[in-house]
Amino acid sequence: MHTTQLLRSALIFTRDGLNRLIADIKGPQAAMTRPAPGSGNHPTWVMGHLCAVESAIQASIAGEPNRHEHLWKLFAPGTQPSSDASAYPPFDDLIRTFNTIREDTLKLLDKVGDAGLDKPPSFIPPGFEDAMSSTGKTFMLIPLHQMVHYGQITDCRRAAGLKPLL
Asked: Is residue 161 scored above 80 in pLDDT?
């Protein structure tokens, strides 16, 4: 098996799992449910954050401008989730954006191919020199990062009274 096949499998597995996890989060109230009263990341912030980070990683790999830079001010690492739903794009828009970004990531993976995975990405943000020392490791950050936040959405589901998936 080629490394790109493993990366593709991880990217598809996490995309599909996240889509199942958020499928029944309907309406602004559920999308803004925090895992604990007044604290934690709600699903709207998590989805926007996943979009912002994955888009930035694509830009780092490809050496192109971040097409979703506008999401960075609301969803960058270190931003604090607001309880004001009007401060954010609609949850359904974030879901569509996430799926579009993931398709673009899969296309970029195909373009890079196995031969390009050992090369460094075009841009490495300060503090990520080890985690992004190769394009392959940089691609792997996407599903690993998503799995961290997958757990946060699971906690929000429980707080919202939704059934667990498993």
From this structure: yes
The listed CATH number (1.10.510.10, 3.40.50.620, 1.10.357.10, 1.20.120.450) that belongs to domain 3-159: 1.20.120.450
Sequence-ordered alpha helix ranges (H) in 27-90 = 27-31, 43-62, 72-75
Considering the entire predicted model, what is its pTM? 0.95
- C-alpha 148/C-alpha 6 separation (Å) is 19
The per-residue pLDDT for range 19-32, each reduced to its tens digit, is: 999 999 988 889 99
The CA distances from residue 128 to 17, 39, 81, 92, in Å, are 26, 27, 24, 31
**Length of the chain measured in residues:** 166
Neighbours of 5 (CB within 10 A): 11
Neighbours of 135 (CB within 10 A): 22
What is the phi/psi pair of residue 158, to 5°? -65, -45
Q: What is the mean pLDDT of residues 54-60?
A: 97
